[in-house]
Design brief:
Radius of gyration: 22 Å
Shape: elongated
CATH superfamily of the largest domain: Aldolase class I
Strand content: 15-25%
Oligomer: single chain
Number of strands: 13
Helix content: 25-40%
Strand order of the largest sheet: 3-4-5-6-9-10-11-12-13
CATH architecture of the largest domain: Alpha-Beta Barrel
Number of helices: 11
Number of domains: 2
Bound molecules: S-adenosyl-L-homocysteine, iron/sulfur cluster
């Protein structure tokens, strides 16, 4: 273990900080006003374009400054408390924060791309009935550094820093980020907004804003503001076409009913056919999966540039729902398709390690045996997964 990786409770890590925070940290270390911009840029590039883990590698930073910085700060990553690999290549990481709290991050490799599913909170205050994370009480919001830190740590694990030291050259393993892990990102919008700006910074992690998707269960007033702040893509966890049912599935609907939510979507900055909103719809057997529901869905979204993403329900121990039969999902998708929407059915990934949508919960390391059994049952039901 090298010196940068040892636990040092008194020092904070620079990894994951926003530009403003990094600048403040350098000022704190005595970097003068005149040099501050240049030094911040240098450090930024070492941290986020090259993924530096050692002060010694920062050859264009003077030895003296490196020594001062290393006395005050570390280059530590989030601690990996556990990592599980699915048979389909999906990787689930359990990260331990410095206060001991745990969050999960999932990496999903696909042909020609790789998606990182990032958490925004420890737990969630909302209690969507089909979601495992919703059964875990909110512990706290993640900081900017803890959100960005998930991407940095997974890039380390995947050895996904540019070979020539430039982040945006060559093929990246993480090509997309979705804020679809634990938590409601729009209840932590300041930190999430800043974190997304770090991830998309062209001199650092360099992820295109069009390849970052923010998913919300419908915090309507925050939606247009967040769009202004970040310029990323939007996904709405819709799941029902009537308020009575949505109130039950996504209790936040009582506060921001469907029409209020759709109005906020219409105000999403840059909304156009080239920048559509994805509406997520989890397929729950006998609950929201009839042909009439499908027809109402397309009617409801008329006039909003939209994509529809059908998600087979991913089960978890004690879940009050089952996934719709495969034929039902196909029939539903057919109606949506005929209305002119490409409606990919999201194939469940990483179910065997409880890494699929809505299965995340910090305690899930303990549930591997149970989740394996459920995954097997599901795979049999659906003939896939
Ligand atoms: N809180 C945010 C983002 C995290 S949830 C939100 O709700 O949008 C990410 C996605 O997984 C959401 O679309 C959510 O509705 C979906 N999801 C939750 N539980 C699920 C489950 N058991 N099976 C399938 N999808 C689920
Ligand atoms: Fe929270 Fe999203 Fe799960 Fe709802 S679906 S409980 S908002 S994480």
């Amino acid at each position: 273990m090298d010196e940068t990786q040892t636990q040092s409770p008194l020092k904070t890590s620079l990894v994951g900080l926003s530009r403003e925070q990094l600048r403040a940290a350098l000022a704190q270390a005595g970097v003068g006003e005149k040099q501050l911009r240049m030094r911040t840029n240098q450090l930024w590039s070492w941290l986020y374009a090259r993924g530096a883990t050692k002060w010694e590698t920062m050859t264009d930073v003077s030895k003296d400054l490196r020594a001062t910085l290393s006395e005050l700060y570390t280059l530590e990553r989030l601690e990996v408390a556990d990592a599980q690999f699915s048979d389909d290549g999906t990787r689930k990481y359990l990260f331990r924060m410095t206060d001991g709290q745990l969050v999960e991050t999932v990496y999903i490799p696909e042909v020609g791309r790789g998606t990182l599913c990032v958490s925004s909170q420890v737990g969630c205050t909302l209690t969507c009935r089909f979601c495992h994370t919703g059964t875990q009480k909110l512990v706290r919001n993640l900081t900017i550094a803890e959100i960005v830190g998930q991407m940095v740590a997974v890039r380390d694990d995947l050895q996904d820093w540019g070979e020539d030291g430039l982040s945006n050259s060559g093929r990246r393993k993480i090509t997309n980020v979705v804020m679809m892990g634990m938590g409601e990102p729009l209840y932590n919008s300041d930190n999430v907004g800043e974190a997304l700006n770090v991830m998309s910074d062209g001199e650092g992690l360099s992820l295109s804003r069009r390849r970052i998707t923010l998913s919300t269960s419908g915090v309507a007033p925050e939606i247009p503001l967040m769009g202004e702040k970040t310029g990323v893509m939007l996904a709405i966890s819709l799941h029902a076409v009537r308020d009575d049912l949505r109130n039950e599935l996504v209790p936040l609907n009582k506060k921001y009913p469907i029409e209020t939510l759709l109005e906020a979507c219409r105000n999403w900055p840059g909304l156009s056919n080239a920048k559509r909103i994805t509406f997520e719809y989890v397929m729950l057997k006998g609950v929201n999966d009839t042909d009439a529901d499908a027809r109402d869905l397309v009617r409801m979204l008329a006039g909003i540039p939209a994509k529809i993403n059908l998600i087979p329900f991913n089960p978890w121990p004690g879940a009050p729902y089952e996934c719709s039969e495969w034929e039902r999902i196909e029939a539903f998708a057919e109606i949506v398709n005929r209305a002119g929407y490409a409606s990919p059915v999201r194939s469940p990934r990483g179910r065997d390690i409880m890494a699929a949508c809505g299965q995340l919960k910090s305690s899930s390391v303990k549930e591997t045996a149970a989740s394996k059994k459920i995954a097997e049952l599901q795979a049999r039901n659906l003939g896939r997964g």
